[in-house]
Write a structure and sequence with these properties.
The protein is built from 3 helices and 2 strands; from the N terminus they run ββααα. Strands 1-2 form a two-stranded antiparallel ribbon. Helices cover 46% and strands 9% of the residues. It has one domain. It is mainly alpha-helical and 89 residues long.
C-alpha cells in the first residue's frame, strides 16, 4: 500500500534500518529532548529522535487511512456483522 500525504510518498512496507541512517548534527533543547525521552521511553538523543520521527510517520499513515473511501453502505456493514456470515472456514 502506498499513500501520498502532503506530497510525501509513504510506503508502509519500508522499515528503517541502521543501514539507511544518516549521520548529522542537530541543535536540540536539552529539556525538550529529556521530556520527549521520558514520554517515548527512550534513552539518549539518537533513540529519542528516531522514536519521535517514527511516531510522526505512523501518525501520518493513520491519518491517511482515515480519509480512505471504502464504499460500504449501512446495509453492507449490517451484512458483514451477521453472526452466521460464512467466512470460508
Amino acid at each position: 500500500m502506498t499513500a501520498t500525504i502532503n506530497k510525501l510518498r509513504i510506503n508502509d512496507s519500508v522499515r528503517y534500518t541502521s543501514a539507511m541512517a544518516k549521520h548529522t548534527s542537530l541543535y536540540l533543547e536539552e529539556e525538550l529532548l529529556r521530556d520527549a525521552g521520558e514520554i517515548l521511553g527512550t534513552s539518549g538523543p539518537t533513540g529519542t529522535v528516531k522514536a519521535a520521527l517514527e511516531d510522526v510517520v505512523r501518525r501520518a499513515r493513520l491519518k491517511s487511512l482515515a480519509s480512505w473511501e471504502i464504499g460500504l453502505t449501512p446495509a453492507d456493514l449490517e451484512e458483514l456483522r451477521r453472526p452466521d456470515l460464512d467466512v470460508g472456514k
